[in-house]
Inverse folding.
């Protein structure tokens, strides 16, 4: 996948702190931001996929051992 450049505008103080943080991590501000954005996208899309899987399981329902057939009535359960 080809990379594409973007322009980012930050206050000078935040940019200075970002440069210091990147230097501590042995990377550039650009690489630091790219990794952070990549992690954020992965986290969000991973959550969306997990949510969709969970909703699909709820739609399908669970096998409760009845084979889809209910062999009792409300009256027979509550018989006194």
């Amino acid at each position: 996948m080809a990379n594409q450049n973007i322009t980012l505008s930050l206050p000078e103080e935040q940019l200075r702190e970002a440069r210091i943080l990147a230097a501590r991590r042995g990377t550039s501000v650009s690489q630091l931001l790219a990794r952070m954005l990549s992690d954020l996208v992965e986290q969000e899309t991973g959550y969306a996929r997990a949510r969709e899987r969970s909703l699909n399981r709820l739609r399908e329902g669970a096998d409760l051992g009845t084979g889809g057939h209910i062999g009792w009535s409300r009256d027979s359960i509550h018989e006194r």
In short: Residues 23 and 49 are 35 Å apart (CA to CA). The chain has three helices and no strands. The mean pLDDT is 90.
